[in-house]
């Protein structure tokens, strides 16, 4: 009797398996796996004074010439130097400290990509899944998780739709609101998914929302479990006005005239931005990532690989860019700006070098990171 039933059992198992692959949206809450039994342990030393002096001089000159304000950290292996410069709010406010957190703007995409890579590693989602597997009624079709990660989805930029879509509506918005706004637009896709690179914040806003749909967890919970715990972080967090308003942060985003840039409804949308962190904790994320405490080697290589060409000698992976310098060195990076904050996050996996600069005033905020690499590497 059992022998007669085996073919039916086999067919039933195939059907069940296929159905489970079609959609993860209705699985219910997923038990988040422990990322690692280890928390990052670092024995940090101090870089030679000749290097730290170069950086202090560089930023002191920028501060004197145009009142640039912020914090920075540079590292070679486990030798680091960090310092801060300028004022938290205005000319006569308190000094910025190295412990102060900044909104890191588009660098937040690296955090989002780490979470998505971890969910793929744990088989909660798949790089080739479509958006509809998590948001069945989403307007735009034939777009995969991978295409969201690599900015070749063709989605319209959601931030461009808000002025008309949320006209006279000043209430704080959520990722769910942004997804609905995007899905209800009369615009067509900018291009067929998978055909070219086009940097778009909609991609990473969508990824954070998909992560929540797939797991039943708030995105901040995933960030805590996958990143904060293994990297041993305290102050890093996603902005949540219910816990802390923009006005209560010691370091404010400033215009060139030192006026404070107020809170905005888009501040409350995350995945593409809205991570607050200081330089040392962002460095710890880099080290935890490098040591395989967040994702394994396979997904680390995918994140850093040249997934799509941006321009000559510049590529985009998952939440991070890759550039080839004239001397042949390969650096990975992401820069960002948002409402007064400007951030720079660069690292070289081969030499284990890292440069982080976080600023909070728009004027004089543009930095040539290659100049900083020369300061770090010159004997």
Structure description:
The protein has 379 residues and is α+β, with helices and mostly antiparallel strands. The protein has a single domain (33-377), classed as DD-peptidase/beta-lactamase superfamily (Beta-lactamase). 34% of the residues lie in helices and 15% in strands. It contains 11 helices and 12 strands. It has helices at 2-22, 49-66, 108-121, 145-149, 162-165, 175-183, 201-215, 219-231, 279-290, 297-304, 369-377; strands at 45-46, 70-76, 79-85, 102-103, 237-238, 275-277, 308-311, 314-316, 321-324, 330-338, 341-348, 353-359. The strands form 2 sheets. Strands 1-3-2-12-11-10-9-8-7 form a 9-stranded mixed β-sheet, with helices on both faces. The chain has a 3-stranded antiparallel β-sheet with strand order 4-6-5. Strand 9 and strand 10 (330-338) form a beta hairpin. Helix 3 packs parallel to helix 7. It is globular and about 60 Å long. Residues 1-29 have low confidence and may be disordered.
């Amino acid at each position: 009797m059992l022998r007669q039933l085996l073919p039916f059992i086999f067919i039933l198992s195939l059907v069940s398996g296929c159905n489970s692959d079609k959609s993860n949206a209705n699985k219910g809450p997923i038990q988040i796996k422990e990322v690692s039994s280890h928390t990052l342990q670092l024995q940090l030393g101090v870089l030679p004074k000749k290097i730290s002096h170069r950086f202090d001089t560089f930023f002191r000159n920028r501060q004197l010439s145009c009142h640039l304000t912020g914090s920075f950290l540079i590292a070679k292996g486990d030798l680091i130097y960090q310092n801060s410069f300028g004022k938290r709010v205005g000319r006569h406010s308190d000094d910025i400290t190295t412990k102060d957190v900044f909104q890191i703007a588009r660098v937040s995409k690296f955090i989002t990509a780490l979470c998505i890579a971890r969910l793929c590693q744990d088989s909660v989602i798949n790089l080739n899944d479509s958006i509809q597997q998590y948001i069945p009624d989403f307007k735009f079709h034939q777009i995969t998780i991978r295409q969201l990660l690599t900015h070749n989805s063709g989605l319209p930029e959601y931030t461009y739709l808000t002025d008309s879509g949320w006209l006279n509506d000043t209430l704080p918005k959520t990722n769910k609101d942004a997804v609905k706004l995007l899905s209800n637009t009369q615009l067509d896709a900018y291009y067929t998914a998978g055909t070219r690179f086009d940097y778009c914040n909609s991609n990473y806003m969508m990824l954070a929302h998909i992560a929540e749909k797939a797991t039943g967890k708030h995105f901040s919970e995933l960030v805590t479990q996958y990143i904060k715990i293994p990297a041993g972080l305290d102050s890093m967090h996603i902005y949540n006005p219910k816990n802390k308003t923009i006005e209560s942060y010691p370091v404010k985003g400033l215009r060139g005239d030192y006026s404070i840039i107020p809170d905005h409804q888009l501040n409350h949308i995350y995945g593409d931005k809205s991570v607050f962190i200081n330089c040392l904790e962002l460095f710890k994320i880099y080290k935890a990532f490098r040591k395989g405490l967040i994702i394994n080697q396979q997904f680390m290589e995918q994140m850093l690989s040249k997934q799509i060409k941006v321009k000559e000698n510049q590529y985009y992976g998952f939440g991070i860019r890759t550039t080839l310098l004239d001397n042949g060195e390969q650096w990975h990076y992401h820069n960002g700006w948002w409402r007064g904050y400007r951030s720079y996050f660069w690292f070289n996996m081969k030499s284990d070098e890292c440069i982080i600069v976080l600023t909070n005033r728009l004027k004089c905020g543009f930095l040539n990171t290659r100049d900083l690499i020369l300061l770090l590497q010159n004997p």
